[in-house]
Write a structure and sequence with these properties.
Layout (H helix, E strand, L loop, with lengths): L5 H4 L10 H4 L11 H4 L4 H6 L8 H5 L6 H9 L3 H9 L5 H7 L3 H4 L12 H14 L15 E5 L3 H12 L3 E6 L7 H4 L8 H14 L2 E4 L9 H7 L2 E4 L5 E2 L12 E3 H12 L14 E5 L3 H12 L4 E6 L25 H4 L3 E4 L1 E8 L5 E12 L2 E4 L5 E4 L2 E4 L3 E3 L5 H5 L22 E3 L2 H4 L4 H20 L18
Amino acid sequence: MADPRGFLRDGREVASRRPVTERVRDWNEVYPGGAGRALLPIITKQAGRCMDCGIPFCHQGCPLGNIIPEWNDLVWRDDWEGAIERLHATNNFPEFTGRLCPAPCETACVLGINQDPVTIKNVEVAIADRAFDSGHVRPQPPEWLTGKTVAVVGSGPAGLAVAQQLTRAGHTVAVYERADKIGGLMRYGIPEFKMEKKYLDRRLDQMRREGTVFRAGTEVGVAMTGAELRDRFDAVVLAIGATVARDLPIPGRELGGIHQAMDYLPQSNRACLGEPVEDQVVATGKNVVIIGGGDTGADCLGTAHRQGAASVTQLEIMTRPAQERPETMPWPTYPMTYRVSSAHEEGGERVYAVSTKEFLGDEAGHVRGLRLVEVQLREGRFEEVAGSEREIRAELVLFAMGFTGPQRDGVVAQLGVDLDSRGNVARDAAYMSSVDGVFVAGDAGRGQSLIVWAIAEGRACAAGVDRYLTGATTLPAPVAPTERPLLV
């Protein structure tokens, strides 16, 4: 193990964030110098808290099966090149997961049974960022080419993981993305203060040097049909995500000023990256209401703060979670507890156990407020609390209520793949759809989930594609498509 007495002597410390008054005035990451550098002064002690358990449940908590005790030990021994090698053995993009994953590995940490768990997520991103700074992340082009070609539709974490694995296996891989730049939701859905896009760009540069071809600004299903894609490539991977946003069809929905989060956030990302945005939706000077209490809602919250909103209120239909792990969610499962993100630290009000009944408009047809009612969950159904209706002011309303599945028209319909009972693309144990040679990975087949699941599925799907093309594979397959995430 790393430090035999580390977990007894040292307490948990996490990377310090910049002061709220400073960070809400810019779009840089909330950590000084970036998340990977913020922990460096204390990282040896934090890595040394890892106990190298006989049964490391952090492996089970991580869908990628990250070999966490090994790279904690290597960091403690100051072997940073060895640490990134062990981290890359299971995770193509630790600089992404170290910033964006909610760290189910930490809630499964054995030390967390009776103490604060190891700072796994912070150590992970520190290893990744230091490896790039030290030149330890190098292109790994294949030694020979197989002559097989693969099209990957979608450039989010699942699509990028599939592409990198298959490129390194010797296949010629082209990644198609309908947006003007590669990266999927990581590019335009994740705000800069959570992950600056320079971290995405440097990984894409590595992939280009390895031989992956990127085709941005190409919407498969429009610019190229599914049939044309099948004729041109030996295999196709659908990594199109779950992009159909959940709506709220109640009276007043047609009013102006009501938008989906994934219309609002990409505009803000483009603007803060210096790109022109026509008719941008901004929160400046407005009372903002965000419907949905998850990560996307928090992204809207932090964005609204930086745009100078007059007030921000985040609504959630569920009751406020407990501070401590509930008895119904014992270790090592991922518990639903009250969490405070960096955006929540910056202000705003969080309102729980409420449902929106109506959007209220002004004479110009623009939203001016919401009519809410308190609710209670009884026998699996939400019931309104009599006499609890009230109105709150809002000139901008953002929906952050999740997604119902992949877009079913376009390439999905053209390829004729079957859908499962939840509306996702059905697949078998090798991630192949009902159409021979067409595979699916990530949210398009799993439903809305975590970035760590997307990468894990991308790696596993790549193994299925490689076996389909060559009859065998040496690529790892960390998860089966029937496994469910530890949290939804």
